[in-house]
Design brief:
Elements lengths: L1 E6 L5 E6 L5 H7 L19 E4 L12 H6 L11 E3 L12 E4 L6
Parallel strand pairs: 1-5
Antiparallel strand pairs: 1-2, 3-4, 3-5
The protein binds FE2/S2 (inorganic) cluster.
Amino acid sequence: MAKITYQHPNGTITVVDVQAPNTVMRGAKLNNVDGIEAQCGGSAQCGTCHVYIDEASTVPLPPMDEVEDDVLYGTACPRRENSRLSCQLPVTDDLDGLLVHLPEAQS
Ligand code: FES
């Protein structure tokens, strides 16, 4: 289980415990955290689960594959160095303490 913090653009934060084998996206959906649409259900096609990983984060994340890299060029809010698709981030104990920032819009 990992404690994950979702921060909204207005500064509001929601902290939830997410169990494996969920993803960071699924953790938000299961806990009714607004700001992640996930229209494709987690198959790395829609880009509406875009998040910004906190720049100070030292939490180890899996490397980005080519599909995620491509989809991140089509997100509603600008891609940044710290952009990821939250559906491509499987939750493990290692993700405990992860802080993700939600973009202003997903579509
Ligand atoms: S849910 Fe569609 S790309 Fe992540």
